[in-house]
């Protein structure tokens, strides 16, 4: 069997020898796009003069607002909220009024990408500068409006009330004020976003660096007014996404619209600066207070959460103000909460998802609350958590906002983690080291994550006449190795060699339906769909084998069907099936999603040098993710996410100036390199609590970044004796 074994990704040889096929590797005949962008955070476009640009070498066309229309406006993908005001959104890709520095106003099409970029400089745009608001704290005052027609900068304002928070604060023995924030980050995948659009005889083919090909197809169809049957979206190799490639940006639409207008193929691959502009994430601010008993019982939380949207709502940005509040109670019993959650427009680039989207924010808030309360009450980080964790006899547990936590033993896992990760010993070691003048610290945090979001996923399993197996999946792995996990599951279900299983994804012409990879759902959801489809095909194989052996029922094991002392092999049965007109060795399965809740503990050791520069020396994790399909892949996910967590906690900030201008470039946006990466050790519990999925698994794709920032910040506090309430913690704050 394969499930549970540390099998290497099936595509590794191709990827690590540079034989992959990213967007920029696609060869084609056609045009390259480059964008004219606003230098102002808020301005009216009076006129655009492209006469010089059009005459430049290699330039075929320059398109502005009126040239590229949409049948229907762009819209947020997640529409739990009232988006009626967006119905009158302009049906243009470019706007008359630009609302952030870098917003595109025109696209240049040329025979070569450098000629296209050169011509961008020759497009003269006459702007009338308008008053801008670039900071959330100013924007909520509604003095300067990003969208004057809305009458407010608050795009969403909702009260998440549970229990009786007044009573909790009345009964409190200790009330602690809290203020917690994350600064803007950039997911920074290895490959920036990019698109190639070919339009020919009424048929549109789009290669896109995306996580959601089917959603793109349907959205392109809606916005461009072309039947979805005439659109094919292909996701080639993707050099990472981290949630940032689950929405559509105007640049992508402009490329497609231009290719349709010119009956041509058009390509655009974002430069690193454009990628920084297109994907920034996770800027939020929570101010409130917590009510506690002196014994550490957390009674209540109240406060206001502001989440920045930038200048426009994207397909995924509105998820955050809606999912952070109900996840703030986390794994704890606290019942009385009043959280006002607001989404705030500013004249800054629109926000994308970033690994964990909402769960890192919620976890940072509740884990900071736990650690700060521990300090105030002079309790240990472990004791205060043990006092508040939901005990196993309350599982399944309905949290105060109605989320149903499926399975787990939170206090049990915490106790085991403390032991396995030798937390108490490390804390003592740090105390000793500090006495010797060595600035080190140890920190821990707990997390509960919600994953496995819907709505459903699709799988199809076929056995060909040679007995080889194809799995067609709506999942869209882009670095996780989930295709390898799915191949393991199917190989086990069918009792065949994994080499014989090919997993196919990311092409709407081949995959009939699908949603994609996000929210750490794929191995559980697409894996379960594939397992059930495999069982259906297996039944058919058994029926063919039975008729070959002239019996009613057969047993199957390791490639052999047997009955009454006779047997036939896998290959013979597959071959036989294709001798009839309808072999039927194909089955599909839609599998409905159901959220599931993995959880775990992280411990970090941090060292601070004489200049206040922190470094995470070691990071240890202990998680319950249900059944582990492939420990190598799952651990790999923790490793990658932890390095991003170190970046968020200590180094990374997509800083904007007063003008809303990004002041970092990719050379000073400080992603941890091998030098800053800690030694990481990821372990999974040997007594897992299964999810209700067929695979029994829960997700691990985001966990390291969900809990990591709280872990690292706590270790930094332990090292310095200071309190830090936001990420990233800058060196100048460490030695304040
Ligand atoms: N796995 C396992 N056993 C489990 C759970 C997971 O063996 N119980 C393995 C799976 O086989 C898979 C990996 O762990 O190889 C992640 O699976 P899962 O948790 O189901 O997450 P997804 O496949 O849905 O991946 C999405 C997740 C998200 S939401 C972001 S953001 C993210 C992440 O994955 N983006 C990534 N990890 C990334 N890794 C890379 N290299 N690139 C990205 O863009
Ligand atoms: Mo994600």
How would you summarize the topology of this molecule?
Layout: H1 12-16, E1 31-37, E2 43-49, H2 51-55, E3 59-63, E4 97-98, E5 104-110, H3 113-120, E6 124-129, H4 136-139, E7 154-162, H5 165-171, E8 174-182, E9 194-200, E10 203-208, H6 213-224, E11 231-234, H7 250-262, E12 265-269, H8 272-278, E13 284-292, E14 298-310, H9 319-327, E15 336-345, H10 359-377, H11 381-388, E16 397-398, E17 404-405, H12 410-420, H13 423-435, E18 440-448, E19 456-463, E20 469-473, H14 482-494, E21 501-504, H15 522-549, E22 555-557, E23 560-563, E24 566-569, H16 570-577, E25 586-592, E26 599-608, E27 614-624, H17 631-651, E28 679-684, H18 703-720, E29 726-727, H19 731-734
Parallel strand pairs: 1-12, 8-29, 10-11, 14-15, 20-21, 27-28
Antiparallel strand pairs: 1-5, 2-4, 2-6, 3-5, 7-15, 8-13, 9-10, 9-12, 13-14, 16-17, 18-26, 19-20, 19-25, 22-23, 23-24, 26-27
